[in-house]
Write a structure and sequence with these properties.
single chain, 432 residues, alpha+beta, 13 helices
Length: 432
Amino acid sequence: RRFAVAFWTLVALVAYGLVLGREAPFYRIAFQVLPGFDAFRFPSRFLFVVELALALLGGLGLTYVQEFLTQRARPPKWDRRLPGVIGACLALGMAGDLVMQNLRQNPIVSARTWLTPPRSVTLIRNSGAEGRVFTPVSPLLHMAAYQMAGGWSGDLTPYIRHREFLQPDSNLLHGLATLDGYAGISPRWTVDLIGDHNRSGLLNRLYGVDAEGGLHLAPPLFDWLEAMSVRWLILPLTNANARLQHVASAPPAEVYCLTNSLPRVRVISRVRRVASPAELGQLARSGAFDPRVEVAMEGSAADAVVAALGSEIAEDKSTGCARIVQERNTEIVIEAGTPRRALLLLSDTFYPGWYATVDGQPAPILRANLAHRAVLLTPGTHRVVFAYRPASVRHGLFLTGIGLLLVLAAALGCWWKTRRAGEIRGDDNRHC
């Protein structure tokens, strides 16, 4: 009969219904009709809400038990201490359970051992060369480490050796840039280009493991890696490809350098219209598309760019120059010059919330090569600024301000109600 109990019970049931996904009757309503719900990739994430509701209901239950015992007439001494004893026992039991489960699923190792930079990191840092790092077949390598370690219940040594491959969810610990990021939060168009642990992208189809266990790297793969400013390739086996320079061994990894890696930003005037990522994938596998000298775009955006470039779409590769003059987490400043109308291509992830200006004037950001950013340039020298100002931050600040005002209004209302009640009774009980 209490509102809090009814509310959190309902929250737990609704959230668990969302966890069940398509097995729940209102999945289609929640994820296809209500705005914003289609952004959740994993309905199981709502287990957090279920667990929160269960924890609060458990706390409310203990509170009501304590209220019941303390309100009894002349409770004995042990009765008054019973809620505290129950709470202490539950806390100790949960702590023991957490420690046991943590030791079984996530073995504890020395922080010094785990945080010491792998040898591959030291090699790349000492080279002084800029560029991104990429490790092909990373899902297979991670699965191999998982099997050698016996899951999470055994020795972590295979995982420690596995760190030499600089997986995308650990590279930031050492300040290195990788081509791929944490796959669980990659946007769709990045998955179309690079792939993730569940789906294949364009790059995944340019390399593979043959029947003898050897790693096969197709020639177009190197074109794409160089175009995306990848300089360091970390492989599980030695490879004698002429476009790779072997730097050193960091067992079980082999570190290679791509000597013709291109800068992250450059000026390009050749545009190829593609109907879909699948078409671009076919062109890439056949070698008919060279991402080092041309840009692929989809749909009406490609038509608009081709129309804007007009007859000045050049076949030569020398269309201008560009360089990054300033870079922060949320802003990149670029100086670019071109003798003809062209595209400024930045091989960083296209994502909502990024805005661009060319010489101080707003310019639309175009999605190029499936997942990168581009803006149109006119002949001359320009200053291009990419700034990250997501609307979600503004909306969050606005809603937070409203919430604070409501809390303040509720507090003032409680204070006024208590004050009036005290005046009517004629006492000094004016505390809320």
